[in-house]
Amino acid sequence: MGTSASSKGPGSGPDIPIVPPWVDDPPKPAPQPAAPNMQPTSPFGPGGPGSPSQPGTPNAPQVPQQQPQSDPSPPGRWRGTRTSLGKFAGGGSDRERHLKRGLGHYSKGGMGGSRNAARRLRGSSRSAGTLHAALTSLSSGAPLPPDLGIDAQALAALPPDQAVDALVDAIRPIDGTQDAEATRDSAARALSEILDQNPDLTNLTPAQIDQVTASLLGHDVAHRIELDVGKAVIDKAPTKGEGLERLQEMKDYVREVVAAEYTAERAKAGTVGKAAIERISNNAVQQTFEVFEDEAEL
Fold first, then answer.
1. What average pLDDT does the segment 266-292 reach?
2. Alpha carbons 219 and 181: distance in angstroms, whole number
3. Scanning 17, 142, 244, 289, which has its CA 20 to 30 A from the CA of 135?
């Protein structure tokens, strides 16, 4: 995410949807070479889903799905956000108030409300569900989902840093989008952080698995906000160094709220699978943006 602070963020206008169409219909990942000693387990063959079928096995017909329409972005959608975050970047004793107002404007004005914001980050929720399911299978000794294309025994034999890379590649393959790069970074950070508590990613406790999941979400929400409006913080700070400090302060606060909302949503459910974690994650993200709007008192 080294270039995110210099990003101008998405534009606005009737031809620019708040939620890009590929969020609901993500692009297929680019073909990736198999990792060393990692044997694919997909029933579709070495290429995984989309590769040639086995002889005599007909391909299922593809039924196009109707995707929900996204609202067009209003002109000046980031004006309130950038103004408040600029004041936050300037420092002062009331910078916390300006930060909260900036995040509230981001949700309400920039994203068109918490529901749209959660939909914009639907890919993050999907990845959270996939990662949670993979780590749960590894810790319980259950077979990994075949579409991940990795072998549990081979993964366990890898050094921790290589195991992180293999899991990141499996849950969020490269597909050429900025979202994929952000989520890959978020997943790598979340997995690397848990290594300080448990160096064996194939044997995490349920609490640690939820911690990784919440961390992925938190990093990804913070990345999205940074990519959209982080430049306002850098540009309005007295120095670049102070701007980077303010940007980190903002991201830390975002992750803190996401973690709290994920914990609250997760506590409502017991043993869950991939779909349930995806739903919990989506709810947590939406609740996060509702907190931003409430605390902004707009």
1. 95
2. 12
3. 289
Phi/psi for 17 (5° steps) reads -70, 150
pLDDT digits (tens, 9 = 90+) for 182-230: 999 999 999 999 999 999 999 999 999 999 999 999 999 999 999 999 9
How far apart, in whole angstroms, are the C-alpha atoms of residue 81 and residue 112?
12
Please write the tens of the pLDDT for every residue from 34-47.
444 444 333 323 33
**pLDDT tens readout for residues 217-261:** 999 999 999 999 999 999 999 999 999 999 999 999 999 999 999
Q: Do 288 and 262 meet the contact criterion of CB atoms below 8 Å apart? A: no
Q: Looking at per-residue confidence, does 177 or 62 come out higher?
A: 177
Task: Give the residue among 149, 183, 192 at the shortest CA–CA distance from 44.
Answer: 149
CA quadruple 37, 41, 42, 45: dihedral sign: positive
Separation CA 179–CA 123 (nearest Å): 8
Nearest-10 crossing angle of helices 240-266, 95-105: 60
Distance CA 245, CA 97 (A): 17
Alpha-carbon separation of residue 147 from 6, 44, 143, 281 (angstroms): 36, 9, 11, 21
73 DSSP β-pair partners:
13
DSSP character for 14?
E
Q: What is the pLDDT of residue 58?
A: 43
Q: Which residues contact 292 (CB under 8 A, 6 or more apart)?
A: 100, 103, 104, 106, 107, 114, 257
Classified as helix, coil or strand, 17 is strand
Distance between CA 91 and CA 95 in Å, rounded? Answer: 6
Cα of first residue to Cα of last residue in the chain, in angstroms, is 31
**pLDDT number for residue 64:** 42
Tokens of 210: 């939820």
- Per DSSP, helices labelled H in the chain are 21-24, 79-89, 95-105, 114-120, 122-140, 152-157, 160-171, 178-194, 206-236, 240-266, 274-296
